[in-house]
């Protein structure tokens, strides 16, 4: 009687190893293949925005004032990298470009402390201009 369970166990184990399975074939989808997205044209490079630091540089050049524009660089906590004025100036140019300006008359760049959400902050403020060529 003891040999019967051992024999059954041996037969079951050997039977499982003799099973050979064929590799699973991929299922063919009946859905229509997705259409390729149309190629979108790349946006044109934005025109670089020139920074004027003195109003005298604009004398004799026709221009249109598009409004005030600013750029900032924020240091969130004391452990973060400090804010810097070149980053604030670059963001000033980017924001002026969004207003379709090709120049900025820079009024000021300052580093302040205690601004809401920033430990220290560099802010540059100017006027976005559209200077036309003669």
TrEMBL record:
Alphabetical UniProt keywords: Cell outer membrane, Disulfide bond, Membrane, Signal
Domain of life of the native organism: Bacteria
Subcellular location: Cell outer membrane
Topological type in the membrane: Lipid-anchor
Residue pairs linked by disulfide bridges in the UniProt entry: 74-118, 109-124
Entries under InterPro entries matching the protein: RcsF
PROSITE patterns from the UniProt entry: PROKAR_LIPOPROTEIN
Entry-linked Pfam families: RcsF (PF16358)
GO CC, alphabetical: periplasmic side of cell outer membrane
Family: Belongs to the RcsF family.
Protein name as it appears in the record: Outer membrane lipoprotein RcsF
Gene behind this protein: rcsF
């Amino acid at each position: 009687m003891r040999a019967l369970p051992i024999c059954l166990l041996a037969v079951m184990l050997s039977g499982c190893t003799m099973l050979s399975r064929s590799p699973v074939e991929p299922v063919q989808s009946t859905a229509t293949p997705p259409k390729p997205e149309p190629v979108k044209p790349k946006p044109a490079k934005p025109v670089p925005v020139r920074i004027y630091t003195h109003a005298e540089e604009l004398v004799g050049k026709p221009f249109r004032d598009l409004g005030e524009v600013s750029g900032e660089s924020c240091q969130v906590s004391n452990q973060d990298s400090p804010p810097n004025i070149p980053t604030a100036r670059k963001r000033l140019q980017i924001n002026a470009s969004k207003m379709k300006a090709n120049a900025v008359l820079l009024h000021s760049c300052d580093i302040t402390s205690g601004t809401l959400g920033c430990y220290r902050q560099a802010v540059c403020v100017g006027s976005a201009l559209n200077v036309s060529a003669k």
